[in-house]
Design goal:
Number of strands: 10
Helix content: 10-25%
Order of helices and strands: HEEEEEEEEEE
Low-confidence stretches: 4-8
Oligomer: single chain
Strand content: 25-35%
Radius of gyration: 29 Å
Mean pLDDT: 80
Shape: elongated
Structural class: mainly beta
Distance between the termini: 114 Å
């Protein structure tokens, strides 16, 4: 009789465990990696990583946000982009297109924010934002030891003032 009761207890516990609602701990956590690239590379690649192998597809919705880089000028704006990490895999990547220019400027940044993700733990934390760095690859303005000399004429313009600097004094 004891074996029968023990068997029924184990069976009922197994059935109870199979029928419970999934909790937050049952899902993988999600992290979006930071990215950086030279402006002329044409794109930045971002990788989303899960803490464990998922049993279901994880669908991520993301958008870009300006920081010092301007959407439409420095990179292509993404609103409600979608990425799927298939069941059985822990990573997937997506790209954001960069806009190359000839402007001499400092490195610029923008963010990619996860708006929503299915079958993952709550994304309301710092891991739901990745920072993108666009490294300026245009020539910096360098003055060599011989100094810098401006042109005396510019096509279509008239020179209105000219002066020379020599060894720290004005001539």
């Amino acid at each position: 009789m004891q074996k029968l009761l023990l068997g029924l207890s184990i069976l009922s516990l197994s059935l109870f465990a199979c029928n419970r609602e999934p909790s937050e701990e049952d899902f993988p956590s999600l992290r979006l990696e930071n990215a950086n690239a030279e402006e002329a590379s044409g794109e930045l690649s971002f990788t989303a990583k899960l803490s464990v192998i998922p049993e279901l597809d994880v669908v991520i919705t993301y958008s870009t946000e300006d920081v010092t880089a301007k959407g439409g000028e420095d990179y292509e704006v993404v609103e409600n982009g979608s990425l799927t990490i298939p069941a059985g895999q822990t990573t997937a990547s997506f790209t954001v297109a960069l806009i190359d220019d000839e402007a001499r400027e400092p490195n610029e940044t923008f963010n990619v924010r996860i708006i929503e993700a299915t079958h993952t733990r709550s994304i309301l934390n710092t891991d739901n934002v990745a920072t993108a760095i666009i490294r300026n690859d245009d020539d910096n303005f360098i003055i060599d030891d011989a100094g810098y000399r401006t042109p005396e004429t510019y096509p279509g313009l008239t020179l209105v003032w000219q002066d020379e600097f020599n060894a720290g004094s004005l001539n």
